Amino acid sequence: GSGGASPFWPAATALVAAATAVAGVTALPVTQQTRAALARRAPADPTAYERTGEWLRDQLSSRDVVADDFHRDFVTWLDTDYGIGVLDGLYPLSPAGHADWDARQELWRRLTGAEAVPGEAPCLTDPYGVRFVVISAEHMPGGRRTYSPEAVRRSPYLRAAFSTGPLEVFRVVDTCPRDDATTPTAAAVR
Questions:
Q1: What band does 117 get if pLDDT is binned at 50, 70 and 90?
Q2: What is the H or E stretch that residue 120 is in?
C-alpha cells in the first residue's frame, strides 16, 4: 500500500449506514402493526383482570387452583401475574402428558356444565384442587368458546362469587361431603 486510506472503507461505512436507516424506516410500519395486533388481543378493561387477580389471590391458598377457558378469556396468565395456579397450562408436547390433559379438560367440562348429567349431580372428582372458575364476556380473537355462560351459571358445582367488568368468578362447591383423606393431590400447572 501507499499508506493512504483506502476509498473502500468510507464507501462501505456509508452503505452500512444507509442500509441500517432503510431497515429502520421499513421496520416502523411492521412494529406499529404488531403493536396494533397486540392491542386488539388485549382485554378492553385490563383493570378488571387486575381486580380479579387480586381478589382471587386473597381467597386462595398456595395449593388452590383456578380454571378458565384455555387461553380464551384473558385469565390464563393469573399464574404468572398473581402466583395463582391454573388448571390448564400449555398443551402437553409429549404423549405422556395427554392423559392428564384429558382429565383436566373433562373436569373443566363437568364444572362448566358442558357434560351435564341428568338428575342429581354426582359427586365431583377433582384431584387438582380447583376452587374457582373464571369466565369472561371478552375473548381472545380466534379459537372457540368451550362453555356456555348460561350453563356455567346453572352448574350444580358452581356458585357466583365475584364479578367485575366482563369477568365472572364462580366458587366451586362439592355436592358430596368429603373427609380430610380426599384432599387434592395432583399439582396445579405452574
A1: low
A2: none
Cell numbers for 7, please give them.
476509498
Map grid coordinates 401475574 to a residue.
81
Cell of 105: 379438560
Distance CA(63)–CA(184), nearest Å, equals 9
Whether the Cβ atoms of residue 72 and residue 143 lie closer than 8 Å to each other: yes
Q: Alpha-carbon distance 84 to 140, whole Å?
A: 20
Q: Which residue is associated with the grid cell 380426599?
A: 182
Q: What is the mean pLDDT of the chain?
A: 75
Q: Where are the alpha helices (DSSP H) in the chain?
A: 8-41, 46-59, 78-82, 98-111, 149-154
Residue type, 116: A
Q: Cell numbers of 125, please?
A: 372428582
Integer Cα distance of 64 and 57 in angstroms: 10
What CA–CA distance (Å, rounded) separates 86 from 51?
17
Report phi then psi at 134, rounded to 5: -120, 130
Eight-class DSSP state of 113:
T
Measured CA to CA, the distance from residue 166 to residue 1 in angstroms comes to: 74
What cell numbers appear for 162 in the block? Answer: 365475584
The Cα-based distances of 103 to 98, 108, 128 in angstroms read 9, 9, 10
Least trusted range by pLDDT, from 40-44, 52-56, 101-105, 162-166: 40-44
